[in-house]
Amino acid sequence: MSMAGNTPEGTGHVGTLTPNQATALKQFWEAIHNIQANGTVTLTHDPKLNAPPAPAVDPAPVAAGWGGGWFGAAAPAAPVEPVAEPPLTITLEEIGLSAADVKTALWNNVMCDHPDSLVLRFLRARKWHVGNGLIMLLNSFKWRQEMQVEDVKYWGDDDLEAAYPKFRKQLEMGKFYIHGTDKHGQPVVYLNVQLHRAGDQDYKTLERLTIYLMETGRLLIQPPVETVALVFDLTGFGLANMDYTLVQFLVKCFEAYYPESLGAILVHNAPLVFWGVWKVIEPWLDPVVASKIKFTYKNQELLEFIPANHLPESFKDAGLDKFVYQYLPPVQGENALMEDQEGKAKVVKEWNELSEKFDVATRAWIKTGGDVSEEREKLAKDLKNQYIKMQPYIRAKNQYQRKNASGKSIIQPDGSVVWTYHN
To answer: Which InterPro entries does the record associate with it (predicted)?
Structure first.
């Protein structure tokens, strides 16, 4: 995961790329441009791009626990000789997208991120295989189109409630909430499984809720951190709380559509009855996701990962934060700028102009070489600032942008995030 202020070279994030990783990134952008221009692209994979960076010294054994593997450290794998692959041809027609679809989905998905940050997620997820990463990216765009993800961002809570009954009820009851950060600066999502019963709401409502969680969570992640932590609180869990279909959907989202977004999973206080359920779930998990799971039982064990003054005091003898979740409902007029068509057209035009400039700078960067383009980096910052300026015109506010009784919001107007802890 990306650690705030401590992201070493070779981890595959913006500003930490090895020469091979930088080459793969350039090839990825070039493939995106070519497939938009021609509807198809043929890529020949260079197996050297898969090679991990050589450590300067012998690496120390990895500790068990947070990101250290499911059952602890694994023995280092033996070197694998690169294998040549036949050229891979990818066509938009086969995936079911047009060039315009790709461009729209790409820039809708960049949001406040550095554009490289988005595509690097897919490259890391496919171990720097450019062709496989591009297929994954395009399939995620197709899924976002089919699932109408932009509607979830555009509609307010009341609109989502009208279209998907009991949507707001899920938010009000605290079935899930995001609060504070763990020791690595990752926002922590708490899922209170005992509050869920599959038949209490339509499955489409749960799909919308999951997408809402994903898209809202992205606004709460602050660079250089790029991931979230999940705490599945199984206190009071019974078989009536189990929803296999929803679990499958959540796993698929993290693995295929929001790759490299999950930093860690804590499964907390699992009762004996859960282990029969676990035997069903375990085979569904990608090894990368499985490696991020840690089982905790006593509340004190949570403190290995979450500071006591960030952990809600509902975790009795461990948490010191007197925070109590309370849903903040929509405020009349909070989305008034979305009705300002003239203002919206202006900021969207400015965003489109900046994205075009970034594309031009990227093409020049690919041709001229070099690991970093100062112009691209400036444009990436300009794009972030422009998205923050544009957001009130194109996206409904969520509860993390609303002010609480003390007049404070978590997401600030400038896009920064300020958590308040009650100690």
So the answer is: CRAL-TRIO_dom (IPR001251), CRAL-TRIO_dom_sf (IPR036865), CRAL/TRIO_N_dom (IPR011074), CRAL/TRIO_N_dom_sf (IPR036273), PITP/CRAL-TRIO (IPR052432)
Q: Is the peptide bond before 330 cis (omega within 30 degrees of 0)?
A: no
Sign for the CA dihedral angle at 361, 362, 364, 370 comes to positive
Residues 296, 268 contacting (CB under 8 angstroms): yes
- DSSP-assigned letter for residue 353: H
Assess contact for 188 and 229: CB atoms under 8 A: yes
Report which residue type is found at 190.
Y
Instruction: List pLDDT tens digits, range 211-261.
Output: 999 999 999 999 999 999 999 999 999 999 999 999 999 999 999 999 999
Distance CA 94, CA 269 (A): 45
CA atoms within 13 A on the CB side of 392: 16
Neighbours of 50 (CB within 10 A): 16
Handedness of CA 310, 315, 320, 324 (dihedral sign): positive
> Which residue stretches of 84-192 are H helix?
92-95, 99-110, 115-125, 130-146, 149-154, 157-163, 167-172
Task: Report how far residue 173's alpha carbon sits from residue 171's, in angstroms, rounded to the nearest whole number.
Answer: 6
Rounded distance between C-alpha atoms, residue 107 and residue 142, angstroms: 14
Q: Report how far residue 282's alpha carbon sits from residue 304's, in angstroms, rounded to the nearest whole number.
A: 24
Q: How many CA atoms lie within 13 A of 261 on its CB side?
A: 23
**pTM of the entire structure?**
0.90
Residues of the chain with pLDDT under 50: 1-6, 56-75
The DSSP letter of residue 79 is P
φ, ψ for residue 268 (rounded to 5)? -110, 135
- What residues are paired with 294 via a beta bridge? 266
Provide the H-helix boundaries in 286-334.
Answer: 287-290
Q: How far apart are CA 241 and CA 333, in angstroms?
A: 37
Neighbours of 110 (CB within 10 A): 21
d(CA 52, CA 374): 26
The token pair at 124 is: 């890391």
